[in-house]
Every structure is written in C-alpha cells, then in structure tokens.
Design a protein that fits this description.
The complex is a heterodimer. Chain A is 0% helix and 47% strand. By secondary structure, chain A is an all-beta fold. The radius of gyration of chain A is 13 Å and the shape is globular. Helices cover 0% and strands 55% of the residues of chain B. In chain B, strands 2, 4, 5, 9, 10 and 11 form a 6-stranded mixed sheet that branches. In chain B, strands 1-3-8-7-6 form a 5-stranded antiparallel sheet, with no helix packed on it. Classes of the chains: A mainly beta, B mainly beta.
C-alpha cells in the first residue's frame, strides 16, 4: 500500500540554524500538508500546498517557514533560523483531492530537536 | 476560527469495559470529521464522517456524527490493552472557493486500558 515517507526521522540542530525536512507524498496525490505537534500538545496545521503554490497557511507559518516541491516528488519544509520553540514532531500529509482524507495519509513524522 | 474540543482528556478503564469518547466542534464550511488513533508517532486513520446519524463501524469501534448539535462520539466496546492510545478528533473546514484547508485537531483523549 502506498505511503507518505519522511526523512530524517530525527533531526537535532542548534538554535539559529536552518533545517530542511523532507517528505515524499503518495505519487498521485495533489494536495500536500505540513503539521506540527509540540510534545504533549495537539497536532497543529501549518500549511497546505496545491498546484505548486501555498493554498492556505496558519498563523504559525510565519516568514521563517517556507515550503517547496522542487522536483515533482519531494515536498520540503524549510525553517530558516530555528528557535527552541520549533522543537516538535513535524508531520507531512497528502490527499488525492480536497475532502478525501480517508486513509492513512500521514507520514511517520520527523522529530526536530533544537538545542 | 475553527475549534475542536474533546472530552475527557484522559480516561483509565479496565479491559473489557466500553468507552465513549466525545468531540464537539465549530468549523466554517464543514466538510468532514475524522477520528485518528495516535500511539507512538503519526495519527492513523479510523473513521471519516460527513453525514449525520449514519454510524460507521469497524470491529469493536464505531462512530457517529450529529451535524445539528455539532458533535461526534467514538465508541470502543470490549476494550483491550492494545486500544491504549491517544484518540484524536479532527475537522476539515473549507474555504468558499474550495481551497485546501488543513485539519483542525482537538487535544485528544488519552485512553489507558488496564489489564
């Protein structure tokens, strides 16, 4: 069964450094998402991406964040200058079309630790 | 702003008991309500509900949606220790133009099944 994959599984970085989290969505999916979950807190929507542009973003997704689909398969989240409070689990998700969330379309996550 | 409230936040029961988890929501342009089970990492999909009053069932788990009262319940009968997890409720709202809003999650119900 096709699945969303994410790399790395765990990333440790120093405050102020740039990080890129990578995701490979399911191949025929059209909508891509990033979520984060700070330890012990709820899953929060960051950004959605469709047709090579941001479709929607939350208040969390400020200027230090950016997303890209550089080569038609990877979907990346870049954090330009990491802060301690960026430490969280970051999940990528994809769906074939809007409203088609049925199924296990979340990736396994990347745990980001900022020291 | 979309909002999802789950109750209880935590629940401890004995194996064999039946549990009911609650989810109430406020969302603009409701599209669907989803239940996920989160054990260690990524949320794994359980149910997607779009219509009121139609019960969805999978083994010992079932769920129903009330769009008039804006809530859903997730029932688990004959609980087993493997049911121990955080159960997440999420809603999908939509932009008027059909854009790809992400899911809004509740804080989850932490369910512990004791042998």
């Amino acid at each position: 069964e096709p699945e969303v994959t994410q790399t790395p599984s765990h990333q440790v970085t120093q405050m102020g450094q740039e990080v890129i989290l990578r995701c490979v969505p399911i191949s025929n999916h059209l909508y891509f998402y990033w979520y984060r979950q700070i330890l012990g807190q709820k899953v929060e929507f960051l950004v959605s991406f469709y047709n090579n542009e941001i479709s929607e973003k939350s208040e969390i997704f400020d200027d230090q964040f950016s997303v890209e689909r550089p080569d038609g398969s990877n979907f990346t989240l870049k954090i330009r200058s990491t802060k301690l409070e960026d430490s969280a689990m970051y999940f990528c998700a994809s769906v074939p079309e809007v409203g088609a969330w049925a199924g296990q379309y979340f990736g396994p996550g990347t745990r980001l630790t900022v020291t | 702003e979309d909002k999802v409230v789950q109750s209880p936040l935590s629940l401890v029961v004995h194996e064999g008991d039946t549990v009911t988890l609650n989810c109430s929501y406020e969302v603009t342009n409701f599209r669907s309500l989803l239940w996920y089970k989160q054990e260690k990492k990524a949320p794994t999909f359980l149910f997607m509900l779009t219509s009121s009053g139609i019960e969805k069932k999978s083994g010992r788990l079932s769920s129903i949606l009330d769009k008039k009262e804006l809530f859903s319940i997730l029932n688990i009968t004959a609980t087993q220790t493997g049911d121990s997890a955080v159960y997440l409720c999420a809603v999908e709202g939509g932009q008027a133009g059909g854009g790809a809003d992400g899911l809004t999650f509740g804080k989850g119900t932490h369910l512990i099944i004791q042998p």
